Amino acid sequence: MLIVLLNINLEILSIKNAAGRNIMLALYNTNSICLQLIYLPLHRTTDKTDSEELIIANREIAFQNEEKENRAAELAIANKELAFQHEEKEKRASELVIANQELIYQNREKEERAAELAIANKELAFQNEEKEKRASELVIANQELIYQNREKEERAAELVIANKELAFQNEEKEKRAKELLTANRELQEAQEDIRMLNEELEQKVIERTAQLVEANKELESFSYSVSHDLRAPIRAINGYTKIIDEDYGDRFDLEGKLVLQSIIDNSKKMGRLIDDLLAFSKLGRKEVAFAQLDMNDLLETVLRELVPVENESMPKFNISLLPEAKGDKSLIKQVWINLISNAIKYSGQKKNTTIQIGATSENNMVTYYVKDEGAGFDMQYYDKLFGVFQRLHAQEEFEGTGIGLAIVQKIISRHNGATWAESILNEGSCFYFSLQKASYI
Q1: C or N: which end of the chain has fewer Cβ atoms within 10 Å?
Q2: Is residue 363 left, alpha or beta, with left meaning phi > 0 and alpha meaning psi from -120 to 50?
Q3: What is the per-residue pLDDT across 52-62, written as a single tens digit (0 to 9) for each?
């Protein structure tokens, strides 16, 4: 059975029980899909027909359709509302998306601002540190400035004091200048007086020098004459004493012979003293003949005379090559004789000694030396060393008249040289004398 309800094409199928009565109606749509089952009431009268039942069913269906339509309308309204709400939700979702995008953008902006702020904070912190450093430096600079200001103030105070002192000194200088002017005038007057006195003194010195030269010549002449005149009586005493000893010696007892021998010895000593004194006096009168001296040749001649034959008692000689010098050959030969004789004599009490002879040169002078390992002398008596008849050893120890070194000093002095010595007692002595180099002749 096909029923058209409310413009809806439905097919109703009546389902009957075993008694052949309709107990249920089934509604199908055009696609044969059962839409609803409708149970028919069992208490209906048997006399009602199927059409009535269909009418009732139709009514029921119509009612249900109305209800459905109402529900459909409500559903439509609800769907519209739902669609509206869905649209609103979509709008809200879109807005939320936009808002999220905006929020993400703002977050990115915030993060960038935060990163910039972090960089800015670091920069600010760095600037603060720099400022703190600058502040510390400024504090130190201020302290230094304060210290410098104090120093300046102290210097200023000192300068004030110094200026006052300077002003005072200037005043004093002005006073001194006036005094100096006065003193200069007095000094000029005194210098003039001194000049005049010097002229008078120089004239007196010239006169005294001439007198001294004349007196020295007279003294040397007197010494020479006295010494020369004394030689004859001394020789006579010595000769007559020897004659007495030879002719009458056997008549004297032992004491008499000792007296005669003492007279002979002392007359010989007196003779040597007179000879040395004559030699010393001749030096003052002898003219110095300067010439170029071959010291090696001159020294060899002296050694041949002093040491003709080598023997064990004589010291060994260690001689260096000697430079030439300017001097009088005979006088310088006497210097070598006296110095080498002394070195041999004062080395006589020791065995296996050596005498060194050498020279050094400096500027225009040559210094020669004779060094021995003999008795030496005490340097505290040095000022007597070159004195006439001065002796630093007893006559019993070493023979001599004490005039040899005085002759050496006088000869070297006449050559415009110098003589000096060094010694250690019991270890030896070294005598030096200097002469001008031969190239300066």
Answers
A1: N
A2: left
A3: 767 777 777 77
